[in-house]
Amino acid sequence: MTIIQFVYITAKPFRWRLLFFLLVSICIAINVSLRPYLLKCTLDSVALEPDANVSTHREFLFYILLYFALLVTIFIIDIIYEYIVVRFVSRFKVSIGDFIFKDLIGHSSSFYQNQFAGSLGNKLNNCMSSMPRIIRILNEEFFRRILAISISSYVLWYIDFRCSLALITWISIYNYKLHFTKRYC
Fold this sequence. Notes:
Layout: H1 3-11, H2 15-47, H3 54-105, H4 109-113, H5 117-159, H6 161-184
Helix pairs in contact: 2-3, 2-5, 3-5, 5-6
């Protein structure tokens, strides 16, 4: 069995929670990318109109309310996310342990004669604690950041394509430099 098959089999009962994690990542990426743009729109609504009229105040209030609604929504989503993650991790560890234990029971006695008991228990414990952490890191560190960069690039492309190209260039150079320094230093 490959690692991908193992992850697929053990994570399959939790697919709705994993989908929820991805949706939360999308919401947080949108939040990270659009909040500065909302702030820009808020300041533009006040700064571009030297003579303040009722429509300027309405536009300003709309952007302020939208900004704070986004903050409150992300706060609530984050609380729900953390609650579900705590429940997910414990249940996912139990699921992995059950799967591996059932697999270990199926081995012959010669398998156990060639393995140290502590070694098998240590491998089981490492797998049970590492798999939820790997899934969380992939979701929170990789997927969420890729989405935030994509949304930010799109928003900057909408404002001025040169800003978007500058962002993509800077991120590419930064990642290359980060990879190069880790690899050769």
